[in-house]
Amino acid sequence: MKLVQLLPLAIIAAAAPQPSPELAQVQRHLQSLTTMTAAFAQTDRNGHVLRGTLTLKQPGRIRFQYQPGVPILIVADGGALTFVDYQVRQVQRWPVRNSPLGVLLDPRRDIGRYAHAVPTGNDHVVSVDASDPAHPEYGRITLVFARNESAPAGLTLQGWVALDSQGNRTTVRLSNQRFGGAVAADAFRWNDPRTPVRGR
Questions:
Q1: Strand order across the 90-95 sheet
Q2: Residue 91 belongs to a domain
Q3: CATH code at 59?
Q4: Euclidean distance between CA atoms 61 and 102, whole angstroms
Q5: Residue 118 within a domain
Q6: SS3 of residue 28 by DSSP
Q7: What is the pLDDT of residues 79-124, one digit of tens each?
Q8: Number of domains in the chain
Q9: Cα angle vertex 191, ends 186, 193, to 5°?
Q10: Range of the domain at 82
Q11: How many Å apart are CA 107 and CA 182, to the nearest integer?
């Protein structure tokens, strides 16, 4: 008989690694978050800043609507994350779970399997680093939250730093976050620039 069969269930459960209080709170936040809108400022590795509006609806839907004049759209419709460049009429799509943003967009996943809390030195700030060790090509993301009693599970997402497999760093800072508002069903639709226009 295997040793594990002789151990009381309570002992087995106690021996299993438990998530840190910070990580558990982040998990509760992601599971209780329904919708969020915010302004964002995105900074690339060269210091170039783009601004716009973020709309999120769980599960799996997000839209980065960039400022006027920027011909780029990033949108997830529940299954795929889509990058659209209207200037060159190109579209790239990949599963949400294969993106660093997957940690935000699939609240059913146990983030304790691929994330850990990062010390911040500030009791009012919670930071979580997430990556899939089996798939380093998916990149990694560090999420930063502020404690806020009026926000879902007591946290407000302040932004994140994403690092892709080539080492390119993108920093996103959020402001004017609003939770639980109505989001239109068509907010996550997008026009395909590759579709030819009839009549021309």
A1: 90-95, 80-85, 72-77, 61-66, 49-57, 35-43, 169-179, 155-163, 140-147, 125-131, 115-118
A2: yes
A3: 2.50.20.10
A4: 10
A5: yes
A6: helix
A7: 889 999 999 999 999 888 888 888 888 888 888 888 999 999 999 9
A8: 1
A9: 170
A10: 18-178
A11: 19
